Known about the structure:
The structure is a homodimer.
Chain A lengths: L3 H17 L6 H7 L5 H7 L2 H29 L8 H21 L3 H14 L4 H23 L6 H20 L1 H12 L5 H16 L8
Helix pairs in contact in A: 1-2, 1-4, 1-6, 3-4, 4-5, 4-6, 4-7, 5-10, 6-7, 6-8, 8-10
Chain A binds a DNA duplex through helix 3.
Amino acid sequence: MTSSTIDRILDAAEAEFSAHGFVETSLRTITSKAKVNLAAVNYHFGSKKGLIQAVTDRFLGPLTQNLHAQLSAYEKSFSKSHNDEQELQVLLAILARSCQHVAQQNHHSLAVFARLISTAYSQSQGHLRKHLSYQYGASFLYFMKLLRKHMPEMTDEQFFWRFHYLLGILVFSLSSSEALLAICEREYASNRSLDQIMVDIVPVMASAAQAPIIGEF
Amino acid sequence: MTSSTIDRILDAAEAEFSAHGFVETSLRTITSKAKVNLAAVNYHFGSKKGLIQAVTDRFLGPLTQNLHAQLSAYEKSFSKSHNDEQELQVLLAILARSCQHVAQQNHHSLAVFARLISTAYSQSQGHLRKHLSYQYGASFLYFMKLLRKHMPEMTDEQFFWRFHYLLGILVFSLSSSEALLAICEREYASNRSLDQIMVDIVPVMASAAQAPIIGEF
DNA sequence: GTTAGTTTTAAACGCATGTTTTAAACAAAA
DNA sequence: TTTTGTTTAAAACATGCGTTTAAAACTAAC
């Protein structure tokens, strides 16, 4: 176990990034929590940006692979009578299950994932967005393609917007999960978990997906 | 117009905060965009934190006042045969309209609002959350109370989660609006606006609110 | 016109950050 | 044991930040 240093850094960085975001966590807090010298980050990852990329790559790889595998299995055993709510929920449940899957390995990865999506969509020039879609876009495009089939009455543009409204449910739930779970436990003495949130939002996203279109498109 | 300095700072700060967040925008970029001396911020607002508070107070005041006024007017002329989807949409449309209202005055206020909510829910200790609910919580609690009536079949805890899923749609749409509108124009040659997004999400949030409960609560 | 109070300006301060450097410690092969 | 390459260590570096200071400029009342 020569390079436990690398893993300790990755774990500490993931935890800190998930709790305080990328810019607001310093390399000094990461290296001190990892019990590692400050210079180790630049030595092993080149820069802070390199560390962020390593942290995200660690779960984005498994996430997209798992998602892709599940989607192709789903598509093969496809009951041709789709277009009903059941099938839509199955598809959304696949996404949820992929998220759960990566969370088993790296506990804070989903919160980091949510922060990643949020920052990608909050810079309008979209450098990060391009990088993500170039590196990991295939699986998510695959997902969108299948989702699109269940919302045939919409135009492409309407689907674009609806999809991102659904994404909002997912991203906000993930990035706020720690706070929400804490409030929930304090306020309702209920011991829920991120896993349960992921099954929770599936029917909610499904209903949101099927809401009627009334705007002046 | 002796203190146009203050307004120029507030406008520049609002624009920068909406585009790059609170921590990632420096006082130097704000003051240079406002064509104002660097020290002016500390002179007029005491600190950067004071400036952030001034920026948010400027629209949170009008927002909550408008929301409260609309809600009490709605409650007075209340068709007692509620519990149907129409009424739910009316209520959600009130929230949307209040958002539109403050956006007319300060163009980037809604994106700042979204960032405020996001940061409030991404720190689990919740200092900002407490401050916001102490200062502006009344109107939003009022809104939640009325919304609760339209979702009577849920437990309080289930309502808590569902409410925050709806909040996710709103917050993500607002904080990503600039990027999404840019993509939409480039990809679909469609000239949409934040206003249209706000009417868009009303039926989506309504459907999400009425999704069946299936989780193991 | 002088004065008193307010606002603006330029410069500096103290501090935290990411990064680099240089040497020491270590590991494994010759 | 010596040597070679890799990893760790402590210290310093450069930079950008929020903030403070002290003097200048301005405003308005007397």
